[in-house]
Amino acid sequence: MKKFAHIACLFLIAGTTTVAAHAADKAKLDERIEHAHEVLHELMATPDKGIPLNITEHATCVAVIPGYKKGAFVVGGQYGQGVVTCRTGHGWSAPAFIQITGASFGFQIGGQSTDLVLVAVTHDAFDRLLHDKVKLGGDISAAAGPVGRDSQASTSVLANTGFLTYSRNKGLFAGVDLTGDVVNQNQDDTAEYYGHDVPYQKILAGDVRPHATSMHFMRTVAMMFHEAKNQ
Q: In terms of pTM, does the model score above 0.85?
C-alpha cells in the first residue's frame, strides 16, 4: 500500500512539473509576441524612420523577429525566433511562429542583437510562406527596404521583390540585406502555443482563432495598415 502511495505521489509530482513547464514555455511565447508588438509600436512612433506608406499598403504578410542574434569569427552565423501574420479577407491572421537562420562569410569578429521586420509585398511571397520554408533571395526575391513613411518604393520594386527587409539596432532603423537566410515555421512553438500541431497554412490563411495574448500584436499591425489606407 505504501509502495502504491509512493508511486502515485511520483506521478502527481511529474504531472505538476509538466504543467509548470508548459506554463513557462507558453509564457516565453507570450513574451516573444509582446516584444514583436513593441518593435512595431516603436516604428510607428518614429514616422521619419518607419516603413514607407506605399509598402504597408501593398503588404500581404508582416514578420517580426525581435532580438535576432548575429555572431562572427571568420564564419558568421545568424539565428532568430519571431512571429508572422498575413492579411486575410477579414483582417490579419493569428500569429504563426517562425525561425530564421543564415550564415555569412568573411573576416569578422564580434556579435550583435537586432530586431528584424520582413514585409511581404506580393501574393507570390505570401504563397511561398505557406510552403513552410523560404530561402530569401533564392526561393523568393528579397531586398533591403527603403526607410521613411513619406518615402516611395518604386513600382518595379513592389512588383518584382517578394520581401522587403529591415533591421533595428540600438534605436536605428534601416534596410538590411538578408539574402541567403532561410525562414521556416517553428512547429514546436506553434504546437505549444495553440495546444496542438496546427498547420502553418491554416494559421496564415486566417482559419485559426487568435489567443487573447496575441491581440496586442495584431491590433498594432492592423493600425499600421489602417493608417496607410487612410493617408
A: no
